[in-house]
Amino acid sequence: MTRRPFGQGPAVSVFTLGLMRALASPLQLQQVVARALAIGINHFETAPAYGPSQTYLGQALAALAVSRHHYLVTSKLLPGLDVGSGLAVVRATLQRVGLDRLDQLAVHGINRPEHLRWALQGPGAEILAACEAEGLVGQVGFSSHGSPELVEQAITSGRFDFCSLHLHLLNPTMMPLARQALAAGMGVMAISPADKGGRLFDPPDLLRQQCTPFDPLELAYRWLLGRGVSTLTVGAARPSDLDWAQRLAWVGDGMPAAVAAAAEGLNQACQQRLQDTFCGQCRCCLPCPEDIDIPTLLRLRNLRLGHGMGAFCEERYGLIGQAGHWLPLVRGDACTRCGDCLPRCPRNLEIPTLLQHTHGLLQGPPRRRLWGW
Ligand code: SF4
Ligand code: SF4
């Protein structure tokens, strides 16, 4: 499998195995790890919050007798811990996985300004520095579900060697920041391009037609790799979930013309279906006094009407307000029609009406995140 530079550390395979799903038994995770290694994946991503993932990973690596030189491990650390607790979490991770050093440690979810302050000036800064000084971690990064403004602050802080971002074919909002990070020498990992990228392992017929000649998941993977993203996470539950990673194992640099054309065709198809209600995701309408994340809600509307992605959009909409700072807090029915956003929209969208429409389209029972911290 092709490997790409990743910050200051060793090169990583263009696919990373995320270990949050193969948790039914140690054997299940071992089988997934064995397939990943067999197809050339050298990077495993885990977190203390992923249930027994770390214990099972340690058991799998021992059972498979994998040489330490053949794999890299990234773990995560939730912001907000005091110094003693943070160091204890890192040491416990090392013990569970059976390592004396993590290749990468990411601050898990710089979603709010206080999380970044914790990492740069607060106890997190001390924890990260101590981990590096003691040789417990090779390099330090962050993941974020936060705003582009916050992610840019984290990137430009100069503290981090890599970042894990929501980079999706159908949500390219963060792509300019990914390019900025890459240009600064950071590694960039795409979080969940298949699942959070649109449940692309189970695409609706309309999306499948619009992606022709590619499979939707194939197009998403090829597009992200064409944009230079270092590595893409695959949260495999079964060895067969890695089939596309095997097929796309060898990739060059640059965007293939056929991939660029298919991605542009997909965007055009969406705009044609939405006509003058298409939200261009420019974010000019923010801030909203009710704290409605207007672009995110209207992006779900774009996807629902433009690509027929009902199941995905209803799932994501149902999570709003149910997952703390990991997702938007307020649904479309919170709009008071104050009108503040209207003059800021370059497309002159009737935002309150579109939010009401979005709510009617997508409301359903509340959902829970896979990991409910
Ligand atoms: S009209 Fe609605 S969405 Fe727009 S700023 Fe006011 S409350 Fe927010
Ligand atoms: S300003 Fe208009 S086009 Fe831009 S994100 Fe907001 S609603 Fe969408």
Describe the structure.
The chain is of the alpha/beta class. It folds into two domains: 3-252, TIM Barrel (Alpha-Beta Barrel); 278-362, no CATH class. It is built from 14 helices and ten strands. The strands form two sheets. Strands 3-4-5-6-7-8-9-10 form an eight-stranded parallel beta barrel, surrounded by four helices. Strands 1-2 form a two-stranded antiparallel sheet. Helix 6 links the parallel strand 7 and strand 8. Helix 12 packs antiparallel against helix 13 (310-319) and helix 12 packs across helix 14 (351-362). The relative contact order is 0.11. The model has no long low-confidence stretch (mean pLDDT 94). One iron/sulfur cluster is lined by residues 288-290, 292, 294, 335-341, 351-352, 355.
Tell me the structural class: alpha/beta
The CATH architecture category of the largest domain equals: Alpha-Beta Barrel
CATH domain fold name of the largest domain: TIM Barrel
Tell me what portion of residues adopts beta-strand conformation. 5-15%
Write down how many β-strands occur, each being a DSSP E stretch of 2 or more residues: 10
Bound ligand species: iron/sulfur cluster
The CATH superfamily title of the largest domain: NADP-dependent oxidoreductase domain
Task: Calculate the terminal CA-CA distance, rounded to whole Å.
Answer: 34 Å
Shape: globular
Nearest-integer average pLDDT: 94
Q: How are the strands of the largest sheet arranged?
A: 3-4-5-6-7-8-9-10
Note the main sheet: 8 strands, parallel, barrel
